[in-house]
Amino acid sequence: MGDAPKIPPQSQDSMPADEYKMEPAPDYTPRHPGSGKLKGKVALITGGDSGIGRATSVLFAREGAKIAIAYLEESRDAEETRKLIEAEGSECLLIEGDLGSKENCEAAVGRTREQFGQIDVLINNAAQQWIDEDFANLSEEMMRRMIDSNVMAYMFMTQAALPHLKEGAAIVNTTSVNAFKGNNSLITYSTTRGASLAFSRSMASLLADKGIRVNAVAPGPIWTPFIPGSMPPEMVEDFGKAVPMNRAGQPWEVATAFLFLASSDGSYFTGQTLHPNGGMIVGA
Questions:
Q1: What three-state secondary structure class fits 216?
Q2: For residues 154-187, b (16+ Cβ closer than 10 Å) or e, as one string?
Q3: Helix (H, G, I), strand (E, B) or coil at 66
Q4: Fewer CB atoms < 10 Å away: N or C end of the chain?
């Protein structure tokens, strides 16, 4: 990939943060021509407005899928992603709302089916993250906010989508390298990502006989709005340098893992996790 771009100190006061404010801009661009791997499919992607979700949305569109994006409130990023999807010759539906609410998850699924008539791929990716500076005094509100976003939303979305998923459908959940190795400054976040990992494995077992595959992707340090939105500027500077590849990953480098698991390329994968993490060795 060549030299990694230098990441200067920066921070934002919102979570999720805004991609358009990041310097340098995350790289979402697919690297290869599409080959129709998702032709005729509809993908519902949570957190598809930015970061890994944006890169996955654009890649899936290039591969022929129509895209529904569910996001919290980052309308400027979402509109930009819609333009990118349409530039790939596909269609995009934007759905704003807090997915920690079961009602909103059901509405997102309903709107997707109303617009496109089907759902073939569910990508549970939207999440929130904060540094646990003082875990002993971390507020119940903050804990529940992360659990609602990172755990309950995945379960609610899956519940809502399941009646509409047919044999051959795929669910891919985002987890994290921190679910495997732990992180003493991201205790709550890492715990929620452990939950999404266990959820993926359990649902894979439940749905195998229905021909629905469920897998997970566990990114390492990726340059997304998570980083300036949750870390102080001094931690953001040169983010990702500690991994063996000596750089942060880019969203497009994670999107390819989602495509593999969502398409027929991954037809013999269920209950598994892919690890785009720059060389960190963790238990599978």
A1: strand
A2: bbbbbebbbebbeeebbbbbbbbbbbbeebeebb
A3: strand
A4: C
Give the DSSP letter of residue 152. I
* Cα gap 201→112, rounded to integer Å: 26
Question: Tens of pLDDT along 119-166?
Answer: 999 999 999 888 887 889 889 998 999 999 999 999 999 999 999 999
154-212 tens-digit pLDDT: 999 999 999 999 999 999 999 999 999 999 989 999 999 999 999 999 999 999 999 99
In single-letter form, the type of residue at position 62 comes to R
Query: d(Cα 237, Cα 212) in Å, to the nearest integer?
Result: 41
Cα–Cα–Cα angle for 78, 105, 220, nearest 5°? 60
Cα(172)–Cα(258) distance, rounded to whole angstroms?
Answer: 7
- Using alpha carbons, select from 212, 203, 186, 197 the residue that is nearest to residue 274: 197
- From the CB of residue 139, how many other CB atoms can be counted at a distance below 10 Å? 8
**Token pair belonging to 33:** 């021509």
**3-state DSSP call for residue 163?**
helix
Strands (E), the chain: 42-46, 66-71, 92-96, 121-124, 170-174, 213-217, 273-274
Q: Which domains does the chain have, with CATH numbers?
A: 36-270 (3.40.50.720)
* Contact predicate 65/42, CB 8 Å: yes
Residues with a catalytic annotation lie at 189
